[in-house]
Design brief:
It contains eleven helices and seven strands. The protein has 269 residues and is of the alpha/beta class. Helix 3 crosses helix 10. The protein is globular and about 65 Å long. It binds zinc ion. The site of zinc ion (ZN) has 5 residues, from loops.
Length: 269
């Protein structure tokens, strides 16, 4: 049986390694093209999550807000939602807490979060550090205080893996899960979303992850346009004390600077 000219005929069957390269290249081209197309078309899918809501983002360290949550914070700020930010430590692991606190408020301004809507906690029981176990009751205290003070309806934070696996991120997720499971969420809360952690290949595939994110989680997917992407970069530049080479690589290639996908932890119709 003779094959007509097609993609099939591109493969070199006598050198299988060439086939692998061709297949990988084709997959990358398809991913890139579909992602670019989706990025231009897909702008509104997740707006229903955010319209007319008071949304509280709960993070662990100054810079989490732009390294992980910039797409959804910017989207919420552009919608009719009011955005609030609760950062549970001043990031004092390298004794730079004061500097990082100032950088946090600069970053919030770039992301469209008003200074009076941003709260940074400096609590000796919630010290920044990969070996510090955060007390769940202490997290709960600050979280519920912010929910009550700001009349919050939606909470957005990390999932069980905390994107980077940082124990402080995971501690927030654990606390939120306990609040949901024990029914201790204030009645004003209608929706709790956790930011989806993806594998390392997808994490650093930048724009190419757009199509995968859309197809696997289109209901809870936020994609930045070019303008928002530039603002996210500008917010990260506000954290000048943190701009080490590895973080610059992160900012250049991480899909979290462009895409956020979520899993619902709690919702009330
Ligand atoms: Zn962090």
């Amino acid at each position: 049986m003779a094959f007509t000219p097609s993609l099939f005929s591109l493969f070199n069957w006598e050198r299988p390694q060439m086939d692998v390269i061709v297949v990988v290249l084709l997959v990358l081209i398809v991913l890139l093209l579909s992602s670019v197309i989706i990025a231009f078309v897909f702008t509104t899918t997740s707006q229903f999550l955010l319209d007319n809501r008071k949304v509280l983002f709960v993070t662990a360290h100054p810079d989490d807000e732009c390294m992980f949550f910039a797409p959804v914070i910017l989207r919420a700020s552009q919608n009719s939602s009011t955005t609030f930010l609760l950062c549970l430590s001043n990031g004092n692991y390298y004794s730079q807490g004061d500097v990082r606190e100032k950088e946090f408020y600069k970053s919030c301004a770039v992301l469209g979060v008003k200074k009076e809507h941003a709260r940074l906690i400096n609590d000796p029981l919630l010290l920044d550090g990969p070996h510090t176990q955060w007390n769940s009751k202490e997290i709960e205290k600050h979280l519920l205080q912010a929910v009550n003070d700001f009349h919050i309806q939606t909470i957005i934070s990390f999932d069980n893996w905390g994107v980077s696996g940082h124990p402080n991120h995971i501690a927030i997720s654990k606390c939120l899960r306990q609040l949901v499971e024990c029914g201790r969420l204030p009645t004003s809360i209608k929706l709790v979303l956790s930011l989806e952690t993806v594998g390392i290949l997808r994490k650093y595939s930048s724009i190419m992850d757009i199509s995968i994110s859309c197809f696997t989680n289109w209901q809870f997917c936020v994609i930045s346009n070019v303008k928002s992407f530039i603002r996210a970069q500008a917010a990260m530049n506000a954290h000048s004390s943190q701009l080490f080479w590895f973080r610059i690589i992160y900012v250049m290639f991480s899909r979290y600077m462009i895409i956020n996908t979520f899993k619902p932890l709690y919702y009330q119709m």
